[in-house]
Amino acid sequence: MRPSPLLPLILTVIALVAPVRAEDSLQRYDWKLDDTYSGAHMADFNRLRYEIPILMRQSQIDIAVATGLDFQEGWRHPILVRFVDGSPMGVENVLAYVELLTDGKRQAQRLNINLGAYAKEKFNFDKVFRHELFHAMLNDALEQDAQNLPRWLHEGFAVYAAGQGDQMINSYLSQIEAGDEEGFINGLEGPHGPQDYVEDYLALKYIRDRHGINSLQGFTRALVAKKGDVAGAIEASCFEDWPSFERNARAYSISELKRIKRTLRGAQSGPY
Ligand SMILES: [Zn+2]
């Protein structure tokens, strides 16, 4: 999958699809599937309407294990999965995209599945769905604070949660000459383009590989508890201040890229 450099989330302020009582913080919602569609892709719709509930259940479990975002008790805000026949300009993935609907106090989300693109890209669907679902889960858990999170964290965590990292590294490494890894890992913050997804992902992989899965899950919990304070959550879960984390994640990412590049080169020049 080649992600576009465009917005990861569509932030639209429109009427809520369902009311949320803000004072009732313990209320939880089941996700809902809008089981209606009347477009040109009925065969795909009839297949996906049965597959989506299975994919949703499995994806939520996988994301909980990989990231610590646990939705066993339900969603804090309503979420509707629905089928559409196109995608607006600027969405990250044409195959599926999240709309966050908020009036500043309450929120609801839609996870749209674009049947118009599905026919051509179904091989990619499960991972794209999981990537977009992770965006929706983080938006749900962090509420308003999700909108202040840096782009690298939204995307790196979504790539990590969806299991897209290795595939992206392999495709980007084919474009990097040996020795260019240092320039490629150019800092988590600042302007964000398609090539930054790999660096973003590697920062999350750094936490898991160097500090362990418990620290990564602890990072997620701290991020929610600290209302999106990324540096505070890193410090609480990895015991590294922000400058140390940036430095260590960068060194790890460069060495990871070099290691994988060597592995790929070895595979290409093998005896067969
Ligand atoms: Zn994304």
Tally of extended strands? 5
Give the ordered list of helices and strands.
Answer: EEHEEEHHHHHHHHH
Class based on secondary structure composition and strand pairing:
alpha/beta
What would you report as the Rg, rounded to the nearest angstrom? 19 Å
Largest sheet, order of strands side by side?
1-4-5-3-2
Ligands bound to this protein structure: zinc ion
Share of residues in strands: 5-15%
Q: Note the main sheet.
A: 5 strands, mixed
Mean pLDDT: 89
Q: What is the 3D form?
A: globular
Number of helices: 10
Total number of distinct structural domains:
2
Helical residues, percent: 40-55%
Low-confidence runs of at least 5 consecutive residues: 1-23
Distance between the termini: 28 Å
Descriptive notes:
This protein has 272 residues and is an alpha/beta fold. It is 52% helix and 10% strand. The protein has two domains: 10-148; 151-268, no CATH class. The chain contains ten helices and five strands, in the order E-E-H-E-E-E-H-H-H-H-H-H-H-H-H. A five-stranded mixed beta sheet has the order 1-4-5-3-2. Helix 1 (42-67) links the parallel strand 2 (32-33) and strand 3 (79-84). Helix 3 (125-142) packs across helix 4, helix 4 (151-162) crosses helix 7 and helix 7 (196-211) crosses helix 8. It starts with 9 loop residues before the first strand and ends with a helix. 36% of the residues are buried. Residues 8, 92, 131, 135, 155, 158 line the site of zinc ion (ZN).
